[in-house]
Amino acid sequence: MRTTISIDDDLYRRAKARAARSGQTVSQVIEDAVRDALRPRRGHPDMKELPTFGGSGVLPGVDLADAASLREVMDDGLPLSALR
Predict the structure, then answer these.
(1) Cα dihedral sign for 66, 71, 77, 80?
(2) How confident is the model at residue 13 (pLDDT cuts 50, 70, 90)?
(3) Of 29, 42, 56, 76, which one's alpha carbon is 20 to 30 angstroms from that of 48?
């Protein structure tokens, strides 16, 4: 689509310089910037906070810093009540 927009002179010069460095057109640089600006972001202000629940920490035998021990506990196939 072809349209006309007003853009700050300095901003246009910066877009033009980036286009020259990257081998793109100014239109492509601006399209990429608008696309990026409109992309949904994680942690958007409209996102609700996830609930948290109290507890006594991780289950026995689970070391969150040790992936191998975590896999071992997960692969035991025991019900969670047996691990408490």
Answers:
(1) positive
(2) very high
(3) 56
